[in-house]
């Protein structure tokens, strides 16, 4: 009995360790991507991605959440998106200057996320995707190959973007195809306007109830600020001070002065817009 128990305990510990490792989202720079060329003034052309956003991103929703028309894009033909991704992965980001490189990775991440949903559409949530039952969602699965290196969405976000640029505003720019996520931006990110765009993305999210909401004595926050608290500050006071930079004046003092325990929540429902009957993210009867 003791031997059996020890074996079971070992399996449980090993499984738990594997789950932690598989779902590790700490920022750890992959040194293969630590190079940039500040003298290079080349601008990457994201016009194809802009045309897709213009045609299939719905920004005038009653909820204030940008929704993507996955069914409409599939119905019209997904070739423009696939062509854009193919063009992007043929670019060597290491030859770009840092700001151009930063915009490149954000746009590529968002386009790959849309591509991932299309590959499995219809689905009610991105969390339903992924082939490994020990992993949460599909973020560790290969999404693209750049410079001959296979990359997952987690690689791009946690091994490149976050540690390389050390900018908490990144969290307001990369989109996870979910209602709870900051909006998929209507404009492609470009090096010339990147800082302004990141500030705008932060303000849009933090001025929406899914980012921050004060209800009496309760402070409701997106789970993003729990999962990635270290990116926003060394402790809760610093995190709240950081968030207060991007929200309305009416809320600033209440947020900065909050000393209780925030209520965290996140909606993993698909950020899908239904332009075609019976294709709203759920499987239909045949």
Question: In summary, what is this structure?
Answer:
The protein is mainly alpha-helical and 286 residues long.
Q: What's the total number of strands?
A: 7
Could you describe the largest sheet, including whether it forms a barrel?
Answer: 3 strands, mixed
Give the domain tally. Answer: 2
Shape: globular
Strand fraction: 5-15%
Counting helices, strands and paired strands, the structural category is mainly alpha
Helix content: 40-55%
End-to-end Cα distance, whole Å, is 51 Å
Provide the succession of SSEs. Answer: HHEEHHHEEHHEEHHHHE
Q: Looking across the biggest beta sheet, what order are the strands in?
A: 5-6-7
The helix tally amounts to 11
User: How much is the radius of gyration in Å?
Assistant: 20 Å
Nearest-integer average pLDDT: 90
Low-confidence stretches: 1-22
Task: Please explain how this structure is put together.
The protein has 2 domains: 185 residues, no CATH class; 61 residues, no CATH class. The termini are far apart. 43% of the residues lie in helices and 9% in strands. The longest helix has 23 residues. The chain has a 3-stranded mixed beta sheet with strand order 5-6-7. Strands 1-2 form a two-stranded antiparallel ribbon. The protein has a two-stranded antiparallel sheet with strand order 3-4. It is globular, with a radius of gyration of 20 Å. The protein is built from 11 helices and 7 strands. The N terminus is likely disordered. By secondary structure, the protein is mostly helical.
């Amino acid at each position: 009995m003791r031997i059996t128990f020890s074996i079971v305990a070992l399996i449980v510990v090993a499984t738990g360790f594997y789950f932690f490792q598989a779902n590790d989202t700490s920022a750890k720079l992959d040194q293969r991507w630590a190079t940039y060329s500040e003298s290079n003034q080349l601008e990457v052309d994201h016009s194809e991605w802009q045309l897709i956003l213009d045609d299939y991103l719905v920004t005038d929703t009653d909820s204030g959440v940008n929704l993507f028309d996955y069914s409409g894009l599939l119905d019209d033909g997904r070739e423009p998106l696939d062509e854009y991704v193919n063009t992007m992965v043929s670019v060597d980001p290491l030859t770009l200057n840092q700001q151009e490189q930063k915009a490149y990775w954000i746009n590529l991440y968002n386009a790959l996320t849309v591509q991932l949903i299309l590959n499995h559409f219809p689905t009610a949530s991105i969390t339903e995707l992924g082939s490994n039952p020990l992993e949460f969602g599909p973020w560790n699965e290969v999404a693209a190959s750049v410079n001959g290196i296979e990359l997952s969405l987690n690689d791009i976000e946690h091994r490149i973007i976050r540690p390389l640029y050390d900018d908490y505003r990144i969290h307001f720019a990369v989109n996870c195809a979910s209602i709870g996520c900051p909006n998929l931006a209507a404009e492609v990110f470009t090096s010339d306007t990147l800082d302004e765009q990141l500030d705008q993305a932060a303000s849009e999210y933090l001025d929406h109830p899914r980012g921050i909401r004060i209800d009496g004595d309760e402070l409701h926050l997106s789970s993003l600020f729990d999962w990635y608290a270290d990116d926003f500050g060394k402790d809760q006071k610093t995190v709240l001070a950081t968030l207060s930079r991007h929200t309305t004046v009416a809320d600033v003092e209440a947020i900065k002065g909050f000393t209780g325990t925030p209520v965290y929540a996140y909606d993993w429902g698909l950020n899908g817009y239904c332009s075609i009957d019976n294709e709203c993210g759920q499987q239909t009867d045949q």
